[in-house]
Design brief:
Elements lengths: L2 H16 L3 H17 L5 H18 L2 H6 L1
Helix pairs in contact: 1-2, 2-3
Length: 70
């Protein structure tokens, strides 16, 4: 996977997150993170922080389990 694809996944995730589509956002953030990690990109920390932030928002909202089932 190319780093540009990771950037695209991240942008798609940002849009889904803003729309409240957290389960879709999480999938794209995690896809971006996997690519960044594989490429040893400097963006790993930023992508990891976004994944963790979204997971915490899902936990606080009580829809974590629901989001994982979709």
């Amino acid at each position: 996977d190319h780093p540009v694809l990771a950037y695209t996944h991240n942008n798609i995730a940002d849009v889904y997150s803003e729309q409240g589509e957290f389960s879709k956002a999480l999938k794209h953030y995690e896809s971006a993170l996997k690519i960044y990690q594989a490429k040893k990109s400097f963006c790993v920390a930023k992508a990891s922080a976004k994944v963790n932030d979204l997971k915490m928002r899902l936990l606080r909202s009580g829809i974590w389990g629901l989001s994982l089932r979709r």
